[in-house]
Amino acid sequence: MRRQVLEILKGTLRQQLREPLTLFAMIGLPVLLQPLALWGGATLRTREITHLRREELVVQAPPAFAEALRPRDHLAVVEAGWQDPAHPEVAAAVTLDAAGGEVLYDRTRRASAQAQKRAVRVLERMGRQAQAIRLEAVGLTGQEALLPLEREDLASEAERQGGLLGRVLPLILVFLAMNGGLSTALELVTGERERRTLETLLTARVDRRAVLLGKFLVVVLVSLVTSAVAVTTLWACLGLGLYRVPGEVLGIPTAALPLLLGLLVPLAVLMAAVFTVVAAWVPDYRAGQLAAVGLLFLALAAAGVAAFPAIQAGYALALVPVTNLALAMREALVGHYPPGILAVTFAATGVHVGLALALGVRLLSSESVLFGAAGAADRRARGRFGPDVLWIFGIALLLLWFLGQRVQAMDLCWGMVFTQVVLVAGLAVGALVWLGLPVGEGLSLRRPRGVDLCLAVVAGLCAPGLSALIAVAQAPLLPVSQRTLEALEQAMTLDAPLPVVVVVFALLPALCEETLFRGTLLSLARRSWGPVVACLAVGALFGLVHLQVMRIAPTGVLGVLLCVAVLRGRSLWLPVLVHGLHNALLVAVAGQAWARNPPVAILVAMAAVAVGAVAGMGSGKPQDRGTPVILPP
Amino acid sequence: MIDVEGLTKRFFGPEPVTAVDGVSFHCAPGRIFGLLGPNGAGKTTTLRMLATLLSPDEGTARLNGHEVREDPAGVRGSIGYLSASTGLYGRLTAWEMIAYFARLQGVADPEARTAELVERFGIGPFARVRCERLSTGMRQKVSIARAVVHQPPILILDEPTSGLDVLVARTFLDFVERARDEGHCVLYSTHIMSEAERLCDRIAILHRGRILAEGSLSELREATGLRYLEDIFVRCVERGGPER
């Protein structure tokens, strides 16, 4: 097979390199655009800073403030006009009273933010003078008696240079790696299918794994060269001083360059694997371009984590694709090379790539990949709903992230109702209708047996023990700050009557989330993947949808338990009951001191009872094996 | 050489359809077997199943001793597949295209084999021209060379003369006859009656996924009492039932 992979690599690469646009995108674009962008950006930024420094800004302030001004403060004082549309030139307002001074400003206005900085400087000077007068009054000499204030930046020059760049460079590199690789992948897989050359290739005596690997390696090379050229050009441009802005330090330390280039390899490999799979999966080039937008968003969101200095590289994040590499790049730029985390990052990326390629080979063997659009209906009719599970989950995630959180920020209670009923349950039912599947059967809306209901009550009352136990177990690997815990607790102790809180924040999410996860997604997943894989997959998706790293494992395990409940009891009402009681209990005990650190033995016992109760559901009646649904002709 | 028994393929698109419904036939070495049918009859689906591009829902197909589901790699090594769309890589030259597939198919001396085919099919004058700049006739010649580069015992030809002008089509039909004379087993799908009459030793008339009639041209004439293949074809389609 190695010979075939090499042949396909050589043949495909030869074609790609004959395409002038590919070469331009790989090399010409970064080499030409980066120096221009840096030089242009630096020039504009320098102009802006120079202009701001010289510009005299107007603030509304009392006469005492005006008296303390010096010429180099570049501030003019008026007595009124702040936030008056008739006086747009007034950039900030200063108030003075016995307690001290206060500056009112608008962060979004550049002049206002600058005026605030200058006003604070003046106020600090006034404060020091007042302090000196008081000290003199009690017999201490003025300036000498003041506590000396020293500031020392312990970061090295390289760390300061890399610190700023480390926040943005991973984003740029992910974008460049995608820019080079995605179009190539679409061209090599989707484009070849449309031109029917893929059909020709697959009738030759070539292993399909070799076809995929050969094309994948070409995408890797293009992606790698594009991003490596970009990094090297950026390093050279910064080294040559093309970005010179007063007071700003930007640069790639030479010592960090090799590791940075080394990290581009797993990034390019990962990106290439994902692109090749996506290119094999989409029905046509146009759909590929749409998928590219979604992929770009996902990858940039994952890489954007590195822009937050508070998020540190750790073993848990080293498992997250793209995020792990972005954090490793940031650390490399400031000269930190934690070997353990780097090793986990590389190993995890290897696993991600392997999984993606395995999926790619499967796709390349499927008829829908070869012969296009009719494939989805054909696949569904054969009872294979795996891709549908993923896109429904993707939509749910996007809706919750972009719409749900905003609506809840406006009005928590009604926002929660809207999110659960419309975005979660609405999506669940809408997806089944769109797929042409019977809603009642898809959601397992059957009346449960009495004994199963009793077991669900027991499981629901004990399930908090299971999720708490997982949280305790993961704590050494994923430490959670006290602030986060307090914020989480605060979120559950709302300023509303307890019945409202229980209904809106415990029972409604239980009903709606179960409709989506144990109803729609599980019923589709088990037809494709069988009950065991479906339970694990839907459990994992349930963990992910909670949008917090620390909650993924506890909610994921709970999700698996709820999946088992519906498969054994054959009724959605059972997981709804378990989930509802679980949530209600958490809401009820939130804020109680005794609930913060429960004994592990009790948690183990509760978890065992919950698992046992769910395992006991459905005993004595035949289990649903998940017969694939074939659409009627 | 080709043994097909009860081959069935269903598609579950917006309008679910059984594209191929229990098709069975046999083709020996040194023979041309024609699949004759209108557009949508199931010819291409049948050939795609035999080329291992599609998986049959029912039935078996054995090519050169290899079963399509059990040994797809063996099947692919035994066939040369050619369809109306030439499936050439536009940015490779004619020479590179043939040599590329020679290497992929594991030919012992790819360059020598390429040179031989370039000579045999008269590709020499445009061997170093990129495929995207070739005329339809030239492309078809390169396509044929690509399909036979590994000297397969079976040729599967899916409406190969579609879009070709009369002269190029005639050259192509000459090639098919030569292939038969050299002992290749040729499966030839077409909806052009004259081609089937000229080439095929046996003909199967396919309509709506089912074989309505099968036999040599003389057998079909005898069974229907009609002289022209077009009339035989229309009679079979109008009656709609199998006639063996």
- Report the major sheet of chain A: 4 strands, mixed
Order of helices and strands of chain A: HHEHEEEHHHHHHHHHHHHHHHHHHHH
Report the CATH architecture of chain B: 3-Layer(aba) Sandwich
Number of domains of chain B: 1
Strand content of chain B: 25-35%
The gyration radius over C-alpha positions of chain A equals 30 Å
Order of helices and strands of chain B: EEEHEEHEHHHEHEHEEHH
Give a verbal description of the structure.
- The complex is a heterodimer of chains A (633) and B (244).
- Chain A is mainly alpha-helical and 633 residues long.
- Chain A folds into 3 domains: 2-44 and 157-374, no CATH class; 55-145; 386-616, no CATH class.
- Chain A is 71% helix and 3% strand.
- Chain A has 23 helices and 4 strands.
- Chain A has helices at 2-17, 20-54, 63-68, 110-137, 142-145, 157-194, 197-202, 208-239, 257-281, 285-303, 323-333, 339-364, 367-371, 374-381, 386-410, 412-435, 439-442, 450-474, 482-492, 498-544, 549-569, 573-589, 600-616, and strands at 57-60, 75-78, 90-97, 100-105.
- In chain A, strands 2-1-3-4 form a 4-stranded mixed beta sheet.
- In chain A, strand 1 (57-60), helix 3 and strand 2 form a beta-alpha-beta unit.
- The relative contact order of chain A is 0.07.
- Chain B has 244 residues and is of the alpha/beta class.
- Chain B has a single domain, classed as Rossmann fold, CATH 3.40.50.300.
- Chain B has helices at 43-50, 72-78, 94-104, 110-120, 136-147, 166-181, 193-199, 217-224, 229-239; strands at residues 2-11, 17-27, 32-36, 58-63, 66-67, 79-83, 154-158, 185-190, 202-207, 210-215.
- In chain B, strand 9 (202-207) and strand 10 form a beta hairpin.
- In chain B, helix 3 (94-104) crosses helix 4 (110-120).
- The longest helix of chain B has 16 residues, at 166-181.
- The radius of gyration of chain B is 18 Å and the shape is globular.
- The two termini of chain B are 21 Å apart.
- The interface between A and B is medium-sized, with 33 and 32 residues.
